[in-house]
Amino acid sequence: MPACILGVDTGGTFTDFVLLRDSLLHIHKVLSTPDAPERAILQGIHELDLDNSELLLIHGSTVATNAVLEGKGVRTVYITNRGLRDTLTIGRQARRELYNLTPSLKAPPVPRELCLEAGGRLSATGEELESLTETDLAELRAEVERLAPQAVAINLLFSWLQAGREDSIERRIEAAMPAGLFVSRASKVLPEIREYERGITTWLNAAVGPLVAGYLQRLCTSVPRAQVSVMQSSGGTISAAQAGEQAVHMLLSGPAGGLAGARYIGTQAGCERLLTFDMGGTSTDVALLDGGELRLTSEGCIGDYPVGVPMVDMHTIGAGGGSIARVDAGGILQVGPESAGATPGPACYGQGGKEPTVTDANLLLGRLRADAFLGGSMSLDVDAARHAVSRVAEPLGLSIAAAAEGIIAVANEHMARALRMMSVARGVDPHELTLACFGGAGGLHVCALADALGMARALVPVHAGVLSALGMLVAPRARHLSRTQTCLLTDIDEHELNTIFAELAAEGHAALRDEGVNEKDIETHPSVDLRYRGQSYAINLPWQGSHDTREAFHRRHESLYGHRLQQAVERVTLRVKVQGKRLQIPLGGETTLEGVTGTVHLHGCETEVTVISRIGLQAEQTLQGPALITETVSTTWLAPGWQCTVDSTGNLLLSRE
Q: Is the whole-model pTM more than 0.70?
């Protein structure tokens, strides 16, 4: 293990760094460079004096996410069976505007001229319905040469049963095209049911794969002495060399790091049932951690696209520190989802921003110290913030302070609604949970959000402002493998089942060994997707044998939907998670989180409010609100009626008086 381990999270506004060196953590932030994210990373490495150091760099990247959301994937050809070229365009026929009789047309994911068809069709039981002929292969080769794409996605029906036909197409195309063509086939990316979701996932992997591979290659070239790994959407890491081939697994790379960090700190703080919100500069990510483990879903979406690979189960909204406030045509104050981002950023950053943001509002209410932002390394412009907020105050006939309060209230309501979606809407009582905040802006809003949900406990983790980067350090090397095998649970052949589990596990173990993970440190966790016969969607549960797993499924279905059925239970997809050891890192002993002390007048408080430096707090010390707790990377607003106790690690445990 290298002497220096660096976790890096590239956000919309800031790029965060957490460095473990000589058993001490060092925290750093720089403004992001969205046009070339590696520039901000190299700047941070230089400022941390790591230019010539051997280090392990674990990175949460937004390159794949941004390319999908902005529609900037490379030119990609999509190959499928005859009669199915329009599958990705038709989708699930879900209407975004249910009652709009003349909805606007949406461009198809793949232009029809880039969708090619061939034989090689299988039935649901693996029987050949139409062969893949030499003529098919020759025509595909000629068409791909004519279209000259940068990537190709191959998705044949039921290809997970027999991958040979997709493999034949891949070999023929790669032999015909110049080196460097990115080919993605469904039997490798997502060997599971549902041709639409499988097709979209395979196409996304192809469309963003060259961008991710190119970015990682530039980054690795720029830090030749570093061993580079990348966070996956499932909360495990993968080497940069393999990450480029599996770009679709990086679509929630940064947020997954935050949840890995929250799980690590929550377990140490004795808070394993967490409702989390990660409030950064551009967005807020909300998730539920129940029992100390990350909840994964294979039914997630990025933008309008369903993504079938495992990813952390979270809900994202456009409410962050940089979210822009405006008055709409009806005279109503709106906040987000548009963001000022890193450039120009909130008006108070002094980089030319003119629009009012949540950060500007917090500054004007006194909850941010203009002279202490980022530990004093960046000064905030109060006059610029006041001028920006006046753009919504004047049309509403409000004072600057009242408009700032309104901006905060609207942003809080957006986040509270998202928190209810992840708890109340799923049958989980938030009163039984602890609200955990992280991200640079989370601590300013945690008390208000807990009040909105009637929650009595909250957790502000140590290093909350850079928790996603810290999560990169504690996330294990991991792989998630799957294979669809549909049959009734009563018809299961235990020997066949164990053989499939063993094959998937062997593939995962080999991948981790190639990345230097010791075989004895690898854990294997088999699970299975189950549903009642006739249902469309399944519930994933650990495999405990037919009887115990069936009973666990009945209980889980009843807890989620309020009832259980007498119908037969069907097995859909087998899954295996393999992972290495988690790195145990020290959370205390930090020497770089200087804050400021003193008093400040806050809008709405009759007396001056105490400002406390977080680094000066002692274990078991208790504070009464109102108070501002400052540190380099974030500020916590301890609202009136709340108190906090500092635990032995430095976490702030908040409770209502």
A: yes
E strands present in 258-402: 273-279, 284-290, 296-297, 300-302, 305-307, 311-312, 314-317, 323-327, 333-339
Q: How far, in Å, CA of 441 to CA of 323, rounded?
A: 11
Helix runs in 185-237, H state only: 186-189, 195-222
| Tens-digit pLDDT profile for residues 322-364 | 899 999 989 999 998 888 877 788 999 988 889 999 999 999 9
CA atoms within 13 A on the CB side of 479: 24
Identify any residues that bridge with 288 across adjacent strands, giving them in sequence order: 275
CA distances from 130 to 119, 136, 575 (A): 6, 11, 30
d(CA 281, CA 444): 13
Render pLDDT for 603-639 as a digit per residue (tens, 0 to 9). 666 677 888 888 888 888 999 878 888 887 788 999 9
Residues forming beta bridges with residue 333, ordered by sequence position: 327
The type of residue at 641 is: G
Write the single-letter amino acid at 155. N
Evaluate if residue 498 carries a pLDDT over 70.
Answer: yes
- CA-to-CA distance for 37 and 242, rounded, in angstroms? 20
Domains and CATH numbers, the chain: 4-68+213-253 (3.30.420.40), 71-210 (3.40.50), 272-320+414-470 (3.30.420.40), 340-411 (no CATH), 476-579 (3.30.1490), 598-656 (no CATH)
**What are the C-alpha distances in Å from 100 to residues 89, 95, 104, 105?**
20, 9, 9, 12
